[in-house]
């Protein structure tokens, strides 16, 4: 194992609750609809514009607005979201992650972030983790979102490690699929029934250690 490719939301910290809060406010204010709680998990790993389109579809307003109006709404959501994530601190890092990053650094494993979020650099800065990563893949540069492999291929390329020498960590089914199609070894965090395609699954981030990743890689 020469590289580890990290998903952000659900692996390093919980941003889904802030995305949901911002989308809910946008939906209420601009579209007059209330989003069901299921949208919090349904939008995980889905790009900003695809999330916006799913919400318009839910509101039965998919043809009501011009592309510029839709962009403006997505931008407004991002402003609301930025206010929320501006409050993130080191205490919001999931248990076990700081220890894992230290262990990987000691073992000279390169670390890259494979998040669909354009705000990933800002989030890592707020968490005090920016310096721990060798690279952050830019989602604006990839053609297809998860479950396509693109963001994981880009994350591996940025640390100059072949994807087959990497372990990817994900909490979402589409993310695990993306890791596998990129040719990397997938470690899932969460329910093993949901993440069946992963090479190895742990119940929580606390269980993520260098040795667990190395064992998954050698399997
Ligand atoms: C995250 C979230 C998604 C969000 C996407 C884009 O993905 O899970 O809900 O829509 O990023 O975020 P932004 O609007 O900040 O660019 P990931 O891949 O970190 O789980
Ligand atoms: Mg995730």
From TrEMBL:
Active site: 7 (nucleophile), 9 (proton donor/acceptor)
Cofactor: Mg(2+)
Methyltransferase is among the record's keywords: no
Binding-site positions, Mg(2+): 7, 9, 170-171
Positions bearing the site annotation: Important for catalytic activity and assists the phosphoryl transfer reaction to Asp8 by balancing charge and orienting the reacting groups: 115, 146
GO MF, one annotated term: magnesium ion binding
Annotated binding of substrate, by residue: 7-9, 23, 43-48, 51, 77, 115-119, 146
Record note on cofactor: Binds 2 magnesium ions per subunit.
GO biological process, one term: carbohydrate metabolic process
Keywords, comma-separated and alphabetical: Isomerase, Magnesium, Metal-binding
Broad EC category: isomerase
EC number(s) recorded for this UniProt protein: 5.4.2.6
NCBIfam families: bPGM, HAD-SF-IA-v3, PGMB-YQAB-SF
Family affiliation: Belongs to the HAD-like hydrolase superfamily. CbbY/CbbZ/Gph/YieH family.
Protein name: Beta-phosphoglucomutase
Species of origin: Pediococcus damnosus
